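Let's inspect a concrete specimen:
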Amino acid sequence: MLRIERSFGALMDIPWLLLIYTVPADPSRKRAFIWRELKKIGAPYLRDGVCILPERSDTVALTATIAAKVEEFGGEATLVSGARLAPARAAALVDQFRAARSAEYQEIARDANQLLAHVAREMEHRELTYAELEELEADLGKLRRWTDQVRARDYFGDSAPQDLREVLDRCERALGTFLEHAAAQDRPAP
């Protein structure tokens, strides 16, 4: 138990990276662009114009790129590295990061289950075509890319949960079965 508390305490004593910025109100597309970029890297807001990330080489590079874009848009950006937070605040932020990634992983799993249901319906009710297979493969590819994007901003998790990996693997196998059935339909009768 003591070992867990020590490692948890070490986790809470990490350095943080703050991006403090302002972007001119007009045109609003510039503010929206910055907001989307910060969302892509998983940076939560502490308040308007103040985002936080764990300080790592990848987050420093990503945040510096966004700060440069803010300045290109005529705004002001300040990066603060090495920020330390009170343990309770750091723990709350880590929980916030983990909850956000968990919600994203759950959303991917829901979409993957919908893809499985769609494949099952296609196999039951229609003639199977390679065009349909290509669409379904593209959908699975999107789910895998989305998983990779979430994993890239999963700063405090281990990786995608096992159940998500399993449902994506089931999708892969279902598409393999779909391909076999489509190929069988394409073969001329003996």
